[in-house]
Amino acid sequence: MTEQTPAANLVASGQDYEDESVHGVDALQVQQRYGEEAAKRMRQDGNSQFVDVSLDGKFASFLSDPWVEKDMVKDVRAMFPNNECQVLILGAGFGGLLSAIRMVEVGIRPEDIRILDIAGGFGGTWYWNRYPGLSCDIESYCYLPLLEETGYIPHHRYSQGEEIREYANLLAKKWGISDSAVFQTQAQKLVWDEKSKEWQVKLTQQRSGEEPRIIDVHAQFVVASNGVLNWPKLPGVPGILEYQGDIFHSSRWNYALTGGSPSDPLLTKLEGKRVAIVGTGATAIQIVPELARWAKHVYVVQRTPASVSDRQQRTTDEEWFRSNVATSKGWQRERLRNFHQHFTLDQPPSTNLCDDGWTRAPALVGLAGNPAGPQSMEEIPAYMGKLHEVDLPRQQALRSHVESVVNDAAVAEKLKAWYPSWCKRPLFHDEYLSTFNRSNVTLVDTVGKGLDKITVDSIVVGDQTYPVDIIIFATGFRAPFIGSPAEKANVSIVGRDGKSMSEEWAREGPSTLHGVLDANFPNLFLSGPWQASNSPNYLFNLDFLAKHSAHILGDAKRQAEGKRFVVSVTKEATDAWGMQVLMHSFPGAAILGCTPGYFNVEGELARAPPERQMVIARSGVWGHGIESFCREVEAWYEKSNMHGIEVQTVL
C-alpha cells in the first residue's frame, strides 16, 4: 500500500479535517470557480459531440470482439429447436444473470430460459473490459452478488476484473444456466402479438468469420437487461479514421499490440512506443499507471480532471473475512444497507461497515438520492447550500492531496478537480497521481475542449502536435440515461396497439410500476433505472429489480393455475407511480448545474424546456435513495396483493 499524504489520511480516516483543508477558503469563491470550470466545458452540441460506435458502420472495427472463443458459441438455430422459449433475457451481464437466477428461484426451469448477448460469454461490462489494471471501485464484499449463497470469498477488497468475470461464470454454473446462453446474437425487433399473447422476436447471430444467421422466434416473456454502460463511444474528433498508427477503445483492449494478457498484463510490446490515452475517467486512471511502466512515453489527454482519492487496496484475509464480514445470516444485505445509509446529510449509522471513500463522502447524497432532501422547488436553494457546505472540506482535502503528491506545481494545478463530489463518479486509485512524477508521462490538458484533431501520425491540441504510435480511447460509453430500454439494446420494441417504445418514451416518458413493467408492453420485464432506483453499487440495484420482477412473475404464475397467462400493469397504477417519482424528484436537481458529463447528459438536462423537465423528472430515478425505494416496494408486497398488476389467462 502506498504511503498517504496528510490530507489523504484525513479523508481516508473520516477525521475532522476542516482546519487543514478549509481554513481561509472562501466557499463562495470555490462555487464561482466551479461555475467557471463547468462553463468552459459546456458545448452546444452536448451529447452529439460523441460518435456512437455501434450506430456508425465506419467505426465498426472498434467493436470487434477480441475475446470470443468460436467453439463456445452455440448455433442459434439449435438453441431454439421449436423457434420458441418461455423466457428470453436480453443481456448476459450480471443483470441478465441475476434475472435468470431469480426466475429459477420462482420455478422457471433453466432449460426454458434463453439469454442473448452479442458478446461471446457472460459478464457484460466485465466481459468486454479487460484492460490492464482493471478492478472494481466498490468494495467486493458488497459488489459481488450472492456471496452468502455461494460461500465465495473475494480475493481483494476491490476485486480485479478477471475475478469478477470468472465469478459471473461461477454464478451461471451454480444456478444451471450456463447452457441457456446464446452468444454473438442480438435481438433486432420485438413485436407484441395480441392474438397469441406473446412476443415475436427477430434474432441475428453473427459468429466470427461466418455469414449472419437470422431466425424468428416467439417468447412468452422477455426481460430487458442490457446494462447502462455497454456501447462504446468516441469523441467526434476529425481524423480518427485517417490515423495510420494502432488505435483502439479501452473496452476492446488489444493485447496483441501491447503484449500481456488480462491475467498477466506485462505490456512488453509497448517498450519504445509513444502512447496517447484519451480520457481521465474511471477507466483511464487505472490504465495510465500500467502504460507508464512499459511505454517509452505516455500522453494523457485530459478534458476534465478526475477527482481521485486513495483506494487502499488490500488482499482479503479469509479468517478476518469470516470473523468480521460474513458473521451471520443476511450479512451481505445488512452491509449494503449500512453502505447506503451513509449517503445522508442527517446522522449516519454509528458503525461504518465498509469504511471507504464512498461512505466518507456524505455529499454524494446529491447523486445517490436523499430522503431528507427538498420537497419542493422553493427548498432547492437551501438544500444546495447545505450540500456545498458539507462537501467543501472533502474537496479541499482532495485538492491539497494533489499538491502534496505531484511534484510539478503546474501539473498539480491542472489535475485538481473543480466540481462538487456529486457531479461525477468519485474515483479511487493508489498510484494514478504519483504517475505524473515520472519523466515518461506528459499531461496534455485541453482545458475542457478535448482533442482538436488527429493526423496520420499525431494528436493535435491547439498549436501543439504530439507524434504517437498508439492511440487508446478511454472515452466511455453511450450516456446511460438517454433513450428507452430499446435504445439500450439497439432493438426495436413494438407493444400493444403498435406502440413503439422508442417513440412512446421519447414523447411521454415511461409508464411503469416500480420501473419493471410498462403498461404498453405486457410480459416485458425491465431492469431500471428509469422510474426505479439507483445505487453507486449498481449490481444491488439490478438484483433488487430482478427479484421484484421474479416476485411478480411467480405470483402471476400461481394465479394462472397452470394456464398460459399475460401479466401487465394498469394505467391507473402507472399514473400513480409516475406522480410519486415526480414528487420525489427534487433532490435530483443537484446535478443540473454540474460540469458536463453522463449524469447530466453533457449539460443537456439543464437546457431542456420546462415542460420537458417535467417529463424528465417523472421518468427519472427515485430521488429519496435506494433504501427508500426498497421500502416502497416491500410495503407494496405487504399490503397491496399485487395491486395494479393484471393477470389474464390465455385460452
TrEMBL record:
Origin species: Paraphaeosphaeria sporulosa
GO molecular-function terms, A-Z: flavin adenine dinucleotide binding; N,N-dimethylaniline monooxygenase activity; NADP binding
Protein name: FAD/NAD(P)-binding domain-containing protein
Keywords: FAD, Flavoprotein, NADP, Oxidoreductase
Leader sequence segment: none
Family per record: Belongs to the FAD-binding monooxygenase family.
Gene3D superfamilies assigned to the protein according to its UniProt record, in alphabetical order: FAD/NAD(P)-binding domain (3.50.50.60)
Cofactor(s) the record lists: FAD
